[in-house]
C-alpha cells in the first residue's frame, strides 16, 4: 500500500486552494479544463474554507432545499449489515445513525452533522456543519482523526444525495479512516468500507480510468456517473452497502 498518495505532510506550508486543486487533478490524471470545480467541492460556499492541504472537509453536492428531519424519519432508519461487524455492533451503528439525525434535527436545523468514532467505538466526537458542507474544527474530532485508526465517520446529507467527490477524497486521503457513512435526511443509508485488499495506488488507477471514460465536459451528470461507477466497480478496494 502506498500511504504517501493523497497524504498531506502536516509540516508542510499550507498550499493555496488553486495549487491544491491542481495537484489533485494531476493525481487522478485529468486537466483542470475537463472538470467543473463545483462538483469537486470548489463552488463559492466551499472554496472559501476548503484548503485541502491542512483542513478536513466533507460536503454534499447541489443546492437543493434541505429535507427537514422528523421523528418519523428517525424511527424508520434501518439496520445495515456491514462486513466485519457483529450483529450487536451493527445494532449500535443503526442506533448511532438515529442519534445523528436526532442531533441534527434538534441542534443544527437539520443541517450537516458528523459523528466521529475511534477504534471499536471507544471515543465519540461531534461536529456541526452547514446545509451542504462540514469542516472538522472541533478539537475532540481532530484528536480522533489525527491520532486514532480504524475510524468510523458518520454524517448526514440534508439534500439526500450520495457520496460527493469531496467525501471520497476525504475518505481516500485519510488512511486511518476505515468506514464512512451517509445517513440521509430521508433516512436512507450508504456506507463505504476500505476492504482488506485496499490499495490506494490501485484505487487511483481506477479513478483515472473512470475519469477518462465519463468526464468530458465536467458536468454534474458526468461526475454522478463517475461516482456511481466507482462505488460499484473499484477494483475490490472499497465495499459499498446501502439500504
Describe it.
- The protein is α+β, with helices and mostly antiparallel strands and 243 residues long.
- The chain has eight helices and eight strands; from the N terminus they run H-H-E-H-H-E-E-E-H-E-H-E-E-H-H-E.
- The strands form two sheets. Strands 3-2-5-6-7-8 form a six-stranded mixed sheet, sandwiched between helices.
- A hairpin with a 4-residue loop joins strand 6 and strand 7.
- Helix 7 packs across helix 8 (220-232).
- Residues 1-18 and 28-53 have low confidence and may be disordered.
From the alpha-carbon coordinates, what is the Rg to the nearest angstrom?
17 Å
Distinct helical segment count: 8
Beta-strand segment tally: 8
**Ends distance:** 30 Å
- Silhouette: globular
Average residue pLDDT:
81
**Strand order in space, largest sheet:** 3-2-5-6-7-8
Based on secondary structure, the structural category is alpha+beta
Share of helical residues: 25-40%
Strand content: 15-25%
Our count of domains comes out at: 1
Q: What is the element string, with H for helices and E for strands?
A: HHEHHEEEHEHEEHHE
Are there runs of 5+ residues with pLDDT below 50, and where?
Answer: 1-18, 28-53
Indicate the multimeric state. Answer: single chain
For the report, how would you describe the main beta sheet? 6 strands, mixed
